[in-house]
Amino acid sequence: MPELPEVEVVRRGLERWVAQRTVAEAEVLHPRAVRRHVAGADDFTHRLKGHRVGVPMRRGKYLWLPLEDANQSILAHLGMSGQLLVQPHEAADEKHLRIRVRFADDLDTELRFVDQRTFGGLSLHDNTEDGLPDVIAHIARDPLDPLFDDEAFHQALRRKRSTIKRALLDQSLISGVGNIYADEALWRARLHYERPTAGFTRPRTTELLGHVRDVMNAALAVGGTSFDSLYVNVNGESGYFDRSLDAYGREGLPCKRCGTPMRRRPWMNRSSYFCPKCQRVPRVSS
Length: 286
Known about the structure:
The model has no long low-confidence stretch (mean pLDDT 91). The chain has 6 helices and 10 strands, in the order H-E-H-E-E-E-E-E-E-E-H-H-H-H-E-E. With 286 residues, it is of the alpha+beta class.
C-alpha cells in the first residue's frame, strides 16, 4: 500500500489541479468504489454536486478533500491500487475507472478515481472540530507534521513495551510509516526490527525519528516509491525512490554499508529486510 511520501505526492498534485474548483457532477461507475459511503452511490453523487473543494489535506497515509461550504470531506482510500488522476475530458476512460468528478469551470480537466483491484474508494464524512474526517480522528500525527510531538512519541514508545517496527507501524503512535520506510529507517539507524521499545533512550528515539524524516523527504523528492504502474501521481507518472532503497527488497544483495548479504524474514504477513551485521538481533534477557 502507498505510504506517506506516495500519498503526499498525490496530495500536492490535487492541490494544484483540483483545489478551489466547484463540483458540477460526479459519476460512480462501480458500486464498490463508494462502499464506505453507507448511503450509497446516488447519495454520494447528489451530495457532492455544487460544493467547492478546498485545499487537499493529509495525515499519514490518509488523504481527504474538504468541501469548503459544508463541514464535510471526501476521504480517499487508495488501497492496493487506487489512483486519483487529473485527465482531460476527451481522454479515453481507463479500463478500471470507478468514479469521475467534473467541475463547473472552463478548465478542460476532470478528476478520476481508478482502481484495478477495487480495494480502495471514496466516501463522504463529517469533519471534527480539527477539520479531520471523523472516521480518522484517532490517527496520530505523522513525523512530517510540524505539530508532531517528539517527546510525547518517545514516552508513548517506552510505555508501549512492544518492538520497534511494530511501534513504527502503529497508527495510534505515529502515522504514515509503512513497511518500506520502516525498514529503510531502521537500516539507517542500525536497529533490528525486533528491538524492544522499553529500552529506548531519548537520543535513540531522536536519532530514529531523524532517519524516518530523512528517508521520507528523500522519497518525496523523487515522487515516492513505485514498484509497478499502480502507484502514480495525478498525471500518471511513477516515482523512482525504489532505485535508492538501502534495505527493502534487497535480499541477498550486499549491504551498502558493510557488504554483508542482506536478509529477509517473514514478519506479520509482510517481510522485514535487514543487515545481519549492522542490525544485530537483540539479546533475549534471561
